[in-house]
């Protein structure tokens, strides 16, 4: 079996966790390839309800090896807490391994995340303040400390001394904040090293062997395409590449090794944090969607901005990812709507456009042009076959498929594994 990437196709929170949890039943390996503890995948399964921040959603199956790939930035405290919580609920975590090439989130990253956001005032990005952005900045600035460095305590001390000197200068001189103690940070990370050392493995040979054995390997995305550092609504983006191309860089797989790219879209749109969102509903319909769907961030608890499905953004996202299929989640959330809108183009500066603009400033000025479809006003959460969906629900799904331009293969009608309609084979 080949490798399949599961990619968030909107602004994150599409329900990737559920889809990975579902597909992982047949997978022998799940690799998280980007982002950090700013991601929050909610999974409901027979073990209970979980909010996973770093551990791949394949962890619940005894036959599935889970890898945190090189593209992830790891907060040791978040990871250790998450492992403890899983173990307390009876989940075996002994098949989780971390790439030594993944970068560590250090205490100065979380501190600087907060200080930088505060300094930006009304221009703040609305980050989760978990240090992810500053950790990626250090990776690119070649000032990062990697998971593998935990295995060499002397080397770690030298590296930390060098980096911390620079960080303390910034903390004191730029922000007037207190400096961090080398001893304290070092001792803390040596403790983390004790816990995490057995999990650090060269992940690339493990992936190669799994593929040689023809096992199914899933690549688990975090965040969403419209938050991609290159293709998202820059500068209101995340600091990594959640798109399909990022799956290769963040896991060490070659583009020739991925056969399936499944884009996860929810049946409407949400966004957390700042940045343009043309279909945002700042009215009672938006409130209703938020309330029915419980649209509050899994990591921060922040209310998510809600709106109608944006097919202009969706088509762009689908093309950038070169999808081989779509998973459409949360169709059940629209069950009560009398009518449902889909944005098919934008009006901006007197023009009608159907290309997703590269500039966030232009996108900010885009007015959605909608097409309106009748709602179905009946429950769908118990349905398991496409043909059993109410006719208007089928029409809505078909119209979305037409507009996205790629086949819808899975429809999700509830958070649980079984609340799923398989429309076509994934591969
Ligand atoms: P992720 O980061 O993409 O996994 O998304 P989140 O976990 O932040 O948010 C998705 C939420 O939607 C979670 O609470 C899921 O349990 C829930 N969910 C997933 N699929 C469905 C669905 O089809 N219907 C409903 N009602 N909830 C769903």
Shape: globular
Helix content: 25-40%
Q: Ligands bound here?
A: guanosine-5'-diphosphate
Distance between the termini: 10 Å
Q: Major sheet: size, sense and barrel closure?
A: 9 strands, mixed
Radius of gyration, Cα only, in angstroms? 22 Å
Side-by-side strand order of the widest sheet? 7-5-2-9-1-10-14-18-19
The beta-strand count equals 19
Overall SS class: alpha/beta
Percentage beta strand: 15-25%
The total count of helices amounts to 12
Mean pLDDT: 95
Low-confidence stretches: none
Task: Write a concise keyword list for the protein shown above.
427 residues; nine-stranded mixed β-sheet; alpha/beta; 12 helices; 19 strands; single chain; 32% helix; 20% strand
């Amino acid at each position: 079996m080949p490798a399949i990437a599961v990619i968030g196709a909107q602004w994150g929170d599409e329900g990737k966790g559920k889809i990975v949890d579902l597909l992982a039943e047949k997978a022998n390996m799940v690799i998280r390839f980007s982002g950090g503890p700013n991601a929050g995948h909610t999974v409901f399964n027979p073990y209970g309800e979980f909010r996973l921040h770093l551990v791949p959603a394949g962890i619940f199956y005894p036959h599935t090896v889970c890898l945190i790939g090189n593209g992830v930035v790891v907060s040791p405290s978040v990871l250790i807490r998450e492992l403890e919580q899983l173990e307390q609920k009876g989940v075996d975590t002994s098949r989780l391994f971390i790439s030594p090439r993944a970068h560590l989130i250090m205490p100065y990253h979380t501190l600087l995340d907060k200080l930088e956001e505060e300094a930006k005032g009304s221009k703040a990005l609305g980050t989760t303040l978990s240090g992810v952005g500053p950790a990626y900045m250090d990776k690119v600035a070649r000032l990062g400390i990697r998971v593998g460095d935990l295995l060499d305590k002397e080397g770690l001390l030298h590296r930390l001394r060098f980096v911390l000197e620079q960080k303390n200068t910034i903390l004191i001189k730029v922000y007037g904040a207190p400096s961090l103690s080398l001893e304290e940070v070092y001792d803390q990370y040596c403790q983390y090293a004790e816990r995490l050392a057995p999990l650090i493995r060269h992940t690339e040979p493990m992936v190669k062997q799994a593929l040689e054995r023809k096992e199914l390997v899933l690549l688990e995305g975090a965040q969403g395409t419209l938050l991609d550092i290159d293709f998202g609504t820059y500068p209101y983006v995340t600091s990594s590449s959640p798109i399909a191309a990022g799956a290769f860089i963040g896991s060490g797989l070659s583009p020739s090794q991925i056969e399936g790219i499944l884009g996860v879209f929810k049946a409407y749109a949400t966004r957390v944090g700042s940045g343009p969102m043309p279909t945002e509903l700042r009215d009672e319909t938006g409130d209703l969607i938020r309330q029915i769907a419980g649209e509050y961030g899994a990591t921060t608890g922040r209310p998510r901005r809600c709106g109608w499905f944006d097919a202009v953004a969706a088509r762009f996202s689908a093309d950038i990812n070169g999808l081989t299929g779509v998973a459409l989640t949360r169709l059940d959330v629209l069950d009560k709507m009398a009518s449902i809108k889909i944005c098919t183009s934008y009006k901006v500066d007197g023009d009608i456009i159907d290309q997703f603009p590269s500039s966030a400033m232009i996108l900010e000025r885009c007015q959605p042009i909608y097409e309106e479809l009748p709602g179905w006003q009946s429950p769908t959460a118990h349905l398991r076959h496409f043909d059993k969906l109410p006719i208007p629900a089928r029409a809505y799904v078909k119209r979305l498929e037409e507009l996205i331009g790629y086949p819808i293969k899975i429809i999700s009608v509830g958070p649980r594994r079984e609340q799923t309609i398989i429309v076509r084979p994934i591969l």
